[in-house]
Write a structure and sequence with these properties.
alpha/beta; 2 domains; 5-stranded mixed β-sheet; 17% strand; globular
Length: 176
């Protein structure tokens, strides 16, 4: 009897895991079903900038470490986790750690706007001469990130795919 229960448990785990993998493969995103649900909406952002010429995985990981360091210096716990994924650490994930946080596209965009305010005070933006024109998504593009996904960690996910200004899709979109 005990062996049957173990077998059924293993079968259920295998069935559940294969379902997650199938969902992730369908969307082409291996993190769907693991870190966040399939995004309800995927936006394309045509950045106003190009990636730095010397940008690499090490620099992106360093950026995440900098964000995490800043978050630990706050007098309160951040309501979300920030980390990078992908073989080149070029997918930024922002996942809520609290119920009811980042559960709509409007809240996700509001967080990106807050992060834009912070990004505009960075030396990279202030030296650019156009800090008021650039956004957090532009900063991510400069660092070579290809996407940012925001999720409530439950039912909602919103993804923004980042394209540098020289991308053909962006050039075509700007033509009348």
């Amino acid at each position: 009897m005990k062996h049957i229960a173990i077998f059924l448990t293993m079968f259920f785990v295998a069935l559940t895991t294969s379902g997650i993998s199938a969902n992730a493969q369908v969307s082409g995103d291996r993190y769907v079903g693991y870190y966040y649900p399939a995004p309800q909406r995927v936006e394309i952002y045509c950045a106003r900038v190009s990636p730095f010429p010397d940008v690499d995985k090490k620099r992106r990981v360093g950026f995440i470490i900098g964000i995490k360091t800043g978050m630990t210096q706050q007098s309160y716990e951040s309501p979300y986790a920030v980390f990078s994924k992908g073989g080149f650490a070029d997918k930024l994930l922002i996942i809520s750690k609290q119920d009811g946080y980042l559960n709509t596209v409007y809240r996700a965009r509001a967080l990106l706007a807050d992060l834009t305010t912070s990004a505009r005070s960075t030396p990279v933006f202030t030296k650019s001469g156009a800090a008021e024109e650039l956004t957090f998504l532009d900063l991510l593009t400069m660092l070579g990130f290809r996407s940012v996904t925001l999720s409530d960690g439950n039912n909602f996910a919103h993804q923004v795919r980042l394209l540098p200004r020289q991308n053909e899709k962006c050039k075509k979109a700007k033509k009348p």
